[in-house]
Amino acid sequence: FFKFLEGGEVTITASYPAGKIGTTQENLLAAARGENEEWDVLYREFAQVADEEGFTEIATAFRMISVVEAEHERRYLKLLSRLTDGDFFKRDGKIWWQCRNCGYIVEAEQAPLMCPACKHPQAYFEPKKENY
Asked: What does the alpha-carbon distance between residue 34 and residue 77 come to, in Å, rounded to a whole number?
């Protein structure tokens, strides 16, 4: 949002929840709740204030950002669901898994417990993406 500023000084008084480190499931749920508040409350209010103050371009940007925050919430909830259901590292059929450390790939229903190439644990595996 800095590109909307026209110079000068800005005073910001704000607070932000510090949270706490919990289990992965607790952290994902807290993150999803935070994203929900951002898209459903905060950015909506920011856009309303920007509209009221005559900053329609900024209000539009806030509304577009809220769409992104809703996607973040959806992603965290899907990850939480995969962890809860026990299918984070396994699928119903064979897929390609890729080690995020070394790039090793393997076709299997479940990610290896350890990468045979670099010896990193299963947590380094993710479904391989071909987005190039």
From this structure: 12
For the chain, list the domains and their CATH numbers. Answer: 21-85 (1.20.1260.10), 90-127 (2.20.28.10)
112 vs 68: CA distance, rounded Å = 32
Q: Backbone phi, then psi, for 54, in 5-degree steps?
A: 85, 15
Edge to edge, the sheet with strand 125-127 lists 105-110, 90-99, 125-127
* Predicted model pTM: 0.80
Rg from Cα positions in the chain: 20
Structure token digits, residue 72: 């973040």
In order, the DSSP letters of 22-83 are: --HHHHHHHHHHHHHHIIIIIHHHHHHHHHHTT-HHHHHHHHHHHHHHHHHHHHHHHHHHHH
Contact, 96 vs 105, CB < 8 A?
yes
Q: pLDDT by residue (tens digit) across 58-102?
A: 999 999 999 999 999 999 999 999 999 999 999 999 999 999 999
